[in-house]
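User: Fold this; tokens only.

Assistant: Input:
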Amino acid sequence: MDVSLSEEIAERASLPLDRIGSLFAVMILSALVFLPYLLMRMSRIAQAEPVQIGAAFGPGSIKGWALAAAFAALAVVLALKGPVSRRLLASVAGIVLVALTLGWAAGGLLPPDNRFARVSVGGGAWLLFAAFALSTGDALVRLRLGPGARLLVLALALGALAALLLSGTWANLSIMKEYAGRADAFAREFKTHLFLAVGSLLAACVIGLPLGIFCARNRTLRDALLPVLSIIQTIPSMALFGLLIAPLAWIAAHLPGASALGIAGIGPAPAFIALLAYSLLPIVSSTLAGLAGLPADVLDAADGMGMTPRQKLWGVELPLSLPAILTGVRIVLVQNIGMTVIAGLVGGGGLGVFVFQGISQTATDLVLLGALPTVVMAFAAAIVLDALIEFSRKSRKKGRSS
């Protein structure tokens, strides 16, 4: 038999496996075999007892094994080559199964009339969710959705998450019990978190955009300012928060009216100033890069039309630099949402309060109560800003072509 013919027959006989999908399938099967689906505790700080997926709905129930079989079938779908739409449906189905069955199983495992027992999400469920979420992201990337479609997908995902939270499906999970006892505090710290992250970004834009424009016009200022801002970026966040305590405490004690403005050694003030300091370099650098990368022919055309420097700045330079500036804004917003967690250590509030309370109390679900919303906010902010950047790039191309 001809060698090439034998190779072709062997290739056709082999399974058409997708390399990335096979990796997700291995993750799913590993979660089913090696990791617990849920963790059972008789109190919030007691030693956890692992519950495998087969016993997730009770020792004598076959629902757990049926669920495991469903996940295994979805793993096979992801491992095999096929239409992207089929992979996307399988991935979304996996996320929905994980989300729904966690709440249903937790309700069945909790002993009746026991207010202290807790059921937490196990490592297997986390790994399953990660595998299906990554597979969903991979399928969406392969579909090459436009910015508007990505925003629609984000809105649907957030809507589904809100529906699950409002429906009470997860009410028996430990993290939701932690939330139930801290609902008012969570709302307050969530608002503080948004204020620190978004407020410091807005302040950085007010300061950083003019500085970026001046740096683009003045090389001496650029050479002096950028190294200073770069040095600030190298200071560890915890150290910078700590360094601000003493000077702000002195200002609050000696400057009339400072305390009334909220300036103090601990609290939101040092957190806000530290976040602002970290935000300046990306804003200044992106503004400078956007202005420095403008096409010379466009600037010459603006000069030929008799535009004044101010008209050229607001009518030509800044609109064309918008994609680069928004890239800096995206970096800062995602960075600040994550770094605001550390504000909880200096009394600044935010979701970091729950993270550090949970660490001190060895309460993992209390840590997650602060960490998971932070991750969701950062993820959503990145998608929204990416879409805005693409919209601005398309608008720039249309403006240049016209």
